[in-house]
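Forum > Structural Biology > Help requests

Title: Can anyone predict the 3D structure of LLM class F420-dependent oxidoreductase?

Hi all, first post here. I have the sequence for LLM class F420-dependent oxidoreductase but no way to get a structure on my laptop. I'd be grateful if someone could post the structure tokens.
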Amino acid sequence: MKYSCSIWMAPIDELVELAKTAEEVGFDAMALPDSLFYMEKQSVDYPYTPDGSRMWTADTPIVDPLIAAGAMGAVTSKLRFYTNVMKLGSRNPLLLARQVGSVANLTNNRFALGVGIGWAPEEFEWCGVPYQRRGARVDEMIEVMKLVLGGSMVEFHGEFYDFDRLQMSPAPSQPVPFYVGGHTEVALKRAARVGDGWTSAMMTRDQLADTIGKLSALRAEYGRDAEPFEYQAVCIDRFGIDGHRDLAEIGVTDYIVMPWVRRPDAPLQDKLDSLKRFADKYIQSGWQDK
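Reply #1:
Sure, ran it for you. Structure tokens for LLM class F420-dependent oxidoreductase below:
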């Protein structure tokens, strides 16, 4: 099982040092959050909390994940980066493909795109994109981006996007992985159908086991069960080496953690120390070999 470190709520001026230390102590990747803006009033409930409230405020620091990946990639050589997850629905697929391809090249193929639709109507409407039919639009966006990132001269004529022959260079020398987020049946089908992996929000061990089982069955239906696939998890009720072993046994391949989660405002040195302690206990201890 691999380990990724989330930088959720970390101040921007800490990101470079967090990445350098994460690489030094053996983390596999950094999971990069995405949020375009904080609207003062939300018109719909946030889907991942019991009461629909947001877990962050207007002052919570959230850097653009693509820019963050470029900055952290410049000071590391092995650490990977992926958005967790980028809200596609309010963006343009051609502009985003240009940015993703650039980050993939600048990091020497150490970047993957975690994708979701987006939950807030304001993010769509204030960026000039309809909220209606957002799922179908995102499906087409993924198709467009994969096509363009392939590096050939291509054209596309779909329901939402239409363009004649074009090419973006340089293309990444390896395909950019797409990890699909979401817990709904539609999201799981999308992940099984077109994703290189699935990423969870906060879930219990039993919820993860049930979802991984559903995804495995869906991938078999789509004839993709022999292909590599990541199961990225944020688990809220399994801890310690026994807990990590349990998650690996149910199929989790990438455990997303934030060792300072109980102290998001901790000083940078405390966060760096927590990365080292976590790595000593779980990454360097060799528990997976026992």
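The longest helix spans residues 205-221. Residues 2-283 form a domain with the TIM Barrel fold (CATH 3.20.20.30).
Shout if anything looks off.
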